[in-house]
Amino acid sequence: MPIVKVIEVIASSEKGIDDAIRQAVAEASKTIRNIDSVYVKDIKAHVKDGKVSTYGCVCKISFRVD
User: Can you tell me the distance from the alpha carbon of 54 to that of 51, in angstroms, rounded to the nearest whole number?
Assistant: First the structure.
C-alpha cells in the first residue's frame, strides 16, 4: 500500500484560475515527484479599480512517497 503525502500550495495568476492551478503543479513538480492529484481548496480574486486583477487559489497537492 503506497503512502501519500499532501502539501498545500498557494498560487496566483493574472490569466485565470486554470493558469493558477497549472502554476501550482508546475512549481511543486520542481522538487516533488509522483504527483497524483490536485484538490482546489479555495478560490479568490483580487480587484483593482473595479476589475479583477489577479486570480488565486489554495491547492492541496497529493503525491506518492517512495
Answer: 9
**CATH top-level class of 3-65:** alpha beta
- Is the C-alpha dihedral spanning 37, 5, 7, 28 positive or negative? negative
Q: Indicate the SS3 state at residue 53.
A: strand
Residue 32 has pLDDT above 90, yes or no: yes
Q: Do 16 and 33 meet the contact criterion of CB atoms below 8 Å apart?
A: no
Write down the pLDDT at residue 66. Answer: 86
Asked whether 5 and 50 are in contact (CB, 8 A), the reply is no
Taking the model in full, what pTM does it have?
0.87
